[in-house]
Amino acid sequence: MPGAWSILHIICHDLGRHLGCYGRPDVPSPNLDRLAAEGVLFEKCFTASPPCSPARACLMTGRYAHTN
Predict the structure, then answer these.
(1) Which residue has better confidence, 44 or 37?
(2) Could you please report the per-residue DSSP string of 3-63?
(3) Interatomic CA distance for residues 47 and 55, integer angstroms
(4) Number of other residues whose CB lies within 10 A of the CB of residue 31
(5) Which pLDDT band, with edges at 50, 70 and 90, does 37 fall under?
(6) Using CA atoms in the order 42, 45, 50, 56, what is the torsion angle rounded to 10 degrees?
(7) CA 23-29-32 angle, 5° bins
(8) Are 37 and 24 in contact (CB under 8 A)?
(9) Is the CB of residue 32 less than 8 Å from the CB of residue 19?
(10) Are 44 and 34 in contact (CB under 8 A)?
């Protein structure tokens, strides 16, 4: 389908910003760094819920944690 977007959604448990593309040269992440360089890198983002499982549920459903 011409002009269609390709979306790759990667979820890593407790990774945070510990990748080379976020300025951590001590963490080898060449493939993710390349994806960030050629695609989209989130620099200003927030979560609807700090705990891991509710945050993932919010991301997948678009709902707040207390209504999920």
Answers:
(1) 37
(2) T---------TT-TT-SGGGT-TTS--HHHHHHHHHS---SS---S-SSHHHHHHHHHHSS
(3) 6
(4) 8
(5) very high
(6) -50
(7) 95
(8) no
(9) yes
(10) no
Would you state the pLDDT for residue 1? 62
- Take residue 7 and report the two structure tokens written for it: 């979306």
Residue 17 structure tokens:
């910003």
Q: Rounded mean pLDDT of 56-65?
A: 87
How does pLDDT run across 9-35, given as a tens digit for each residue? Answer: 888 777 777 889 989 889 888 998 998
Q: Is the dihedral of CA 54, 60, 66, 68 positive or negative?
A: negative
- The gap between the terminal CA atoms of the chain, to the nearest Å, is 34
Determine contact, residues 58/65, Cβ cutoff 8 Å. yes
